[in-house]
Each structure stands twice: as C-alpha cells, then as structure tokens.
Amino acid sequence: MNQTIEERIRTVAANIRKIREYRDYTQEYLAMKLGISQNAYSKIELAYTRITVERLIQISQILEVDSVDLLQSTSDELIRLHAGHSKTY
C-alpha cells in the first residue's frame, strides 16, 4: 500500500463514515457520544480535523469495530467484516 499520509487520513475518515452509516447512526449521535458538536464531528469524517489515537479508539468503540480495522481496511472490507454483527445503540 503506497498511500500518502493524507490519503491514509482520508481513508480512515471514509471508513468511519461508512461504518457509521452502516450502523444507522447519525453524526449527531456520534457527536453526542464523543461530547463534541455535530459540526466538529462532521470535520472528522471529512478529514478536515486530524484525530488523536484516543479519539480513534473512542470512535471505534462507539461503532463497535476494532480501531486497527479502521486504519487498515477499506470501507467495503469493513462492511463485509461487520455484516453479521448486530446494530445496537
């Protein structure tokens, strides 16, 4: 994988968005769980805001995925990996 750092950041952001949508969670819901505004959360998904490892772990816990999967997988791979998992709030 020869992605630049910026491309990797955009991939992680896209993965977060894809799993959030798959789980039928709104941006408002994740923002509330993270203690931030919906606007601030939106900037995470758009890769306008760089997130810390701590924030990545928080997001992965809310989305019920392994943080490593968000870093290493494509959006389609993530959906296949988690297709059998229940969608719980």
TrEMBL record:
A Pfam family assignment: HTH_3
SUPFAM superfamilies attached to this UniProt entry: lambda repressor-like DNA-binding domains
CDD domains the UniProt entry points to: HTH_XRE
Molecular function GO terms recorded: DNA binding
Gene3D superfamilies for this protein: lambda repressor-like DNA-binding domains
UniProt keywords, alphabetically: DNA-binding
Source organism, top-level taxon: Bacteria
Domain HTH cro/C1-type: 16-70
Name this polypeptide is given: XRE family transcriptional regulator
Source species of the chain: Dyadobacter luteus
